[in-house]
Structures are given as C-alpha cells and as structure tokens.
Amino acid sequence: MDQLIEQIVTGLSIGSILLLVALGLSIIYGSMGIINLAHGEFVMLGAYAAWVFHTYLGLGLLASLVPIFLVVAAFGWVIERYVLSLLNNRPLDTILATWGVGIMLQQAVRLMVGSELRYVQLPPALADSMDVFGIPISSYRVFLFVVSIALFGATWLLMNRTTVGMKLRAIIQDRSVAASFGINAKRVYALTFAYGAGLAGLAGALVSPLKSVSPDMGTGYVVDAFMVVVLGGVQSLAGTVASAFILGELSGGIAFLQNDTVAKTIVLLAIVVLIRFRPEGLFTARVRA
Amino acid sequence: MSISRRTLLRNTAALGAFAGAGLPHIWIKNADLAYAAGGEIKVGVLFSLTGTTAIIEESLNKATLLAIEEINAAGGIKGSKIVPIVEDPASDPATFSEKARKLVVGDKCVSVFGSYTSASRKAVLPVFERQNNLYWYPTLYEGRECSKNVIYTGAVPNQQQDEFVPWLVKKFGKKFYLIGSNYIYPKEENNYCKKLLEKLGGEVVAEEYVPLGHSEFSSVINKIRSTQPNVIFSTVVGDSVVALHRQYKAAGLDPEKMPMASLTTSENEVAAMGGEAAAGHFTSAPYFMVHKSPENEKFVEAYKKRWGADKVTHFVSEACYFQTYLFKQAVEKLATSDLTPPNIRDAVKGQEVIAPQGKVRIEPENLHTWLWPKIAQAKSNGQFEILVEAKDWLKPVPYAAYPGQSCTEKGLVEKS
C-alpha cells in the first residue's frame, strides 16, 4: 500500500515536470499552429540563464526566476518578430526555421560558454526531503509540483480572463475577421510566442537543479513536450495537464515494475497506437470552424 | 539503363576487393616516406568537440594537446616536432570512422589518439586494422577486445573492481543494487561484478539499465528504497550521473548507509553535480586529481595554466596525457626510416613511463596498461579523498570475466 502511494506521488512529480516543460509548447502549438522545434533550446537557455545569474551575479535560483522568464521571453519575441512572422502561413518552412534556430542556439551556447556540464544550485531552503502522506519526498519536487500547477493556472487565466487572451482566441477562430475588428494579429502572435518561450525558459531553470545543464539538454525535453501535447490534444490546455500526469504516472509506474528503458518504449508505443485511432488526441477543444 | 540492386552490390564489392588487394602496396611505400617528412611527425587527435559526449571529450582533447605542446617545447622527438591534426567527430560513430580514415589515409598520420565511448572505438577499429595503423584509446572500458592496432591506456574491469568490490562488501555489506546506462560497457562491468560477488557470497538485489541520457530517477530511487541494498553499484554515464546523484540527495537518502559505488564518476561529473550531491559516495579509478606525486602536481599545474584555473583533471584525461609520452618514448626507439605504425606498436610493448598516477607499463601481450587501482570518496569541496591505494600495480586482464579466453600476442586465444 505504501509503495502504491509512493509510486503515485512519484508519478505526480514526474508529471509536473512534464507539464512544466510542455506548457510553453502547448500555448505556441495550440494557438499559433507553429511546431516549434526550438522549444528544447528555450528550455536550455533558461537553464543556462539560471547558471549565469547564479555564477556571475550571485543570485539564487528562486530570485532569478522572474528575470529568467523575461530574458527568454525577449529571445522568443525577437525570433518571432524577425524569423517566424516573415514565414506566415508556411507551416513547413516554420518547422525548418525553428529547427535551424534551435541548432544555432545550441552551437552559440557551446561556443560562448563551452560544452561542459554546468552546475545550478538547489535552493538551500528546499534541499531536504519532507513527508507527504507518510512518504519521504524531496521538498524541491513538491515545490515543482506547486509551481507547475500555478503556472498552468496563470496561463489559463491569461487565455480566458484577459483582453490579450480574448484577442488571441479570436485570432485562432478566424484571423481575418479578428483583424477586421481591429485586432493586431502580429502583435498578439509575437506576445504569445514570447510567453511560450518564457515558460520554456522557466521550465529549464526549474529542472536544472535536479538534472544537468548542457548545450544539448533540450533535445530530450522537446520530445517529451511533444508527446504530452500530442497526447493531450492540440489547443486544449486542460488536455495538456491531464496528459502530462497520465504520462508521468504511466512512465513512473512501468519504470518501477520493469525499468526505464521498457517504460520509454511502452509509453511511446501507446502514444503511437492512440494517435492512430484518435489523431486529435485525448482531449479536444470545441472550436467552431 | 537500369541498375538492379544486385548488380550494384556486386560491382561495389568488386571495386572494394580491387581497392583492398591492389592499391595498398603502392600506397604504403609512399606512406612510409611521408611518416616523418620534413622534421614533422603527424598524429591525429580525434575527440568530439561537439555533440553529446563533447562534455567530456573536450577535456581529453585538451590533455592530449597539452602533452604534445610540452614535448615539442622540450625539443620534440629527436628533433622532429609532433604535429597534431585535430578533427571533430561530433559524437557520432559514423563520423568517427570517416574522420579516422581521413587522418590515416589522407593525412598519413602515424598514430591517432582518440575516442571516449566504446561505440566510437568499435566504429574506428576496422579502419585501423585494415590500414594497419595505430589507435591510442585512453578510456576505461569493458575489456573483451584484443586488437593489435589499439593501445589501451585506460582501466579494464579487473583493474577497477578486483580491489573495490571486496572492499565494499567488507565495509558496507553484501547486498548490491546494480544500475547502469543501457549499453555494452555497464553490462560487461556488471557481468564481472556479479562474478566477484558470487565468490564473496554477495547478493544482487536488482540489475537495472536506464536509457543513455536518462535524467528522471525517481522510480529508481523508489526501488532502491524498497530493496534496501548495502551498496548501489553505478555504471551510469554522462549527464545521467549528475541527475542520479542530485535526485538521490534530494530524496533524502544517506550515503553513509547506502553509498553509491561508481566506476564512472570523476572530478568532471562532480563539478557538474556540485560537491554536496557527490559527498560521501565512492569511485574506483587509477587516478584522482588529489593524488600526491611530483608528476601529478606538474600535470595539474600545467593543465590549469594552459586551459584555465577552474578546470579539473580526471582519470581519462590523465591517460590521454601519459599515453602521448608513451608514444614519444616508442618513437624515440625507432630510426626515422623505420617510423611506421606497426613498428611503433612493437616499440611501445613493455615501455614504462612515470605517469601522474604512478609508473605505468604497456603489457606486451595484450597492449593494455599496468595501472595503480585506487578507491576514493568524494568530498563536498568537489575533490576526492583517496582511501585505498594499491600496494602494487595491477596487470590488465581484458578477458577477466571470461575464464576460457585470453588476449595474447597472437591474438585472442581460447582454451577449451
């Protein structure tokens, strides 16, 4: 029984990390239809930003979260403004462009700070473990869980309760009609992309104390993020959350019963089979077309 | 005209056979003359500067270049300068093979120093065997290889485990949890570990492999909690080492009760995970940065001076450094006209050099290296403390886990 609870808590923790990484991608993919292959590199930039703030400015991880969000969001804004917005309505070219941007970011980091692994300190206040339902679990993992839920909440509010969100939803439904109502689609797209990039940056910074920081760390995350978004259903934020936790529990559980290699294989296979029969993913937003 | 796949294959094969049989006679003659032309000795340096394993291979490139620069600054080899030709194989086995061929056939290097992973070594092996050139491989590896075209200067399983496993059993207990990355090296090391444990009456509570680059260890940690081993025997590599240690620490496990015993955690990985996550765990290797010897002080000082004060040396970069000196000694024994890869190979047999870890020697039988096993514990300052030093150097036995087989000068011999 204890083991079962322990494993469920572990799955929640894995799921919260998946959600953290996938949230930014889900926004960009779901609302703009851009398949952003540079997403992993935004995650990586966030992790490096955490390292830079810590090593050169002496800022702790928690204190640097807001600046990291802003820095990576600014990066995203520039890339949207000067690369992607010039490729409007050309989905294939956008995929290629974001892939290229990703490679360039990776190599730029490698050239500037070298390819060795970097160290980001775990916030000392969260370095210990605590008891959740009698199960010892790392305080930092609990913190990540809370943050990922909070970020999801903030994103949901932004989409559904603000003017920017309303404009974005209008553009998603019909860009030309929205434009004729005076909505500046370009600006909204740039802001959305920047927001998604900023979220990815935050995710990178937040996972860096548990994992490792290297120029090519993004590759793994982008795959995970796409699996979450595709399973959850494009354009469905709630679907992203559900699928992140489903995948977390699933891969954690199989890893416990078998091992991580088997878990990875089965999860991937399950997604492929599911997509075959439900190409729109588990959850679909009701959009009038 | 349509070319069927079969004809194409046949023609390609015929062309290959022609190239293999006909051309080398002409080329090797010219190559002999070129090996020491113009007071220069060309060697290849083949470590990934980009891609996944660049994290570690960059330091191997640096240690090799440092040794070459030192040798050249001291007058070269009998007046000839060593000219390093650096190629970046980008952590990709196919590129390794392609660049190796370029260095051996195109640049006519007399030897190549390179590789970190076993996959990349296996990829270049055919090139060196076919061209009868010489590859210098600095990494600890799984053994079970017996090539006449490779000098192996890293540790093989018996050199890392013969002392380590009994010591762990005595100090912590008999229940081992084996965890490694999912490829050949960890599997072979665990194979040998299980053999040793069997002799010692030990018990393997779990043997588990995670995908390369894996970074989510919470389920593994749950399993460790539920099986309660005395020792976690780790052959996890690369950035996974960092994630495993950090998550172990965050989960509140105690290294005093259940330490990780690693064959792969060096100063390099410790720097990335932070001293607090590494502290208390053990590593077995022939070299640690804190080892006290005049040669090591000189090496560490020179390395930091050349590449930056924050840089660390570790058990693979040390091998890169001393194997370059072994190369120098072997070349010194040869007349300039005799300078060919096979002659260097024969000259290096039995060669000794005082390396930072102590005096090492190339075993004439199997071209592996006699090394000095050490057991060390990581400290929170990011360095190790050496707890046990072997009293004597240890012979390399690349087929230690396979009793019927041994690597000799004639190649792999199987006793039935």
Features:
heterodimer, A: 289 residues, mainly alpha, 72% helix, B: 416 residues, Rossmann fold, 5-stranded parallel β-sheet, 19% strand, Peripla_BP_I (chain B), AmiC_PBP1 (chain B)
Q: What is the count of structural domains of chain B? A: 2
Shape of chain B: globular
The number of helical runs of chain B is 14
Gyration radius over CA of chain B: 22 Å
Largest interface: A-B, 45 and 40 residues
Biggest sheet descriptor of chain A = 2 strands, antiparallel
TL;DR?
The complex is a heterodimer of chains A (289) and B (416). With 289 residues, chain A is mainly alpha-helical.
What is the fold's blueprint, element by element?
The complex is a heterodimer of chains A (289) and B (416).
Chain A: H1 2-32, H2 39-57, H3 65-82, H4 91-113, E1 129-132, E2 135-138, H5 139-161, H6 163-173, H7 175-180, H8 185-207, H9 218-232, H10 237-257, H11 260-277
Antiparallel strand pairs in A: 1-2
Chain B: H1 5-34, E1 40-46, H2 54-73, E2 81-87, H3 93-106, E3 111-114, H4 118-131, E4 135-137, E5 150-152, H5 157-161, H6 164-172, E6 175-181, H7 184-200, E7 203-210, H8 218-227, E8 231-235, H9 239-250, E9 260-262, H10 267-273, H11 275-278, E10 282-285, H12 294-307, H13 315-332, H14 341-348, E11 352-355, E12 358-362, E13 369-370, E14 374-378, E15 384-389, E16 405-408, E17 411-414
Parallel strand pairs in B: 1-2, 1-3, 3-4, 4-5, 6-7, 6-8, 8-9, 9-10
Antiparallel strand pairs in B: 10-14, 11-12, 12-13, 14-15, 16-17
Helix pairs in contact in B: 2-13, 3-4, 9-10, 13-14
GO molecular function, one term (chain B): amide binding
Organism (chain B): Bradyrhizobium quebecense
InterPro entries (chain B): AmiC_PBP1, Leu_Ile_Val-bd, Peripla_BP_I, TAT_signal
What does this protein look like?
The complex is a heterodimer of chains A (289) and B (416). Chain A is mostly helical and 289 residues long. Chain A has one domain. Chain A has 11 helices and 2 strands. In chain A, a hairpin with a 2-residue loop joins strand 1 and strand 2. The mean pLDDT of chain A is 90. Chain B has 416 residues and is of the alpha/beta class. Chain B has 2 domains: 201 residues, Response regulator (Rossmann fold, 3-Layer(aba) Sandwich); 128 residues, Response regulator (Rossmann fold, 3-Layer(aba) Sandwich). Chain B has a 7-stranded mixed β-sheet with strand order 7-6-8-9-10-14-15. In chain B, strands 2-1-3-4-5 form a 5-stranded parallel β-sheet, sandwiched between helices. The chains are: A mainly alpha (289), B alpha/beta (416). Chains A and B meet through helix 1, strand 2, helix 5, helix 10 and helix 11 of A and helix 2, strand 7, helix 8, helix 9 and helix 10 of B. Chain B: This is Transporter substrate-binding domain-containing protein. Chain B: It comes from Bradyrhizobium quebecense. Chain B: InterPro entries: AmiC_PBP1 (IPR039570), Leu_Ile_Val-bd (IPR000709), Peripla_BP_I (IPR028082), TAT_signal (IPR006311).
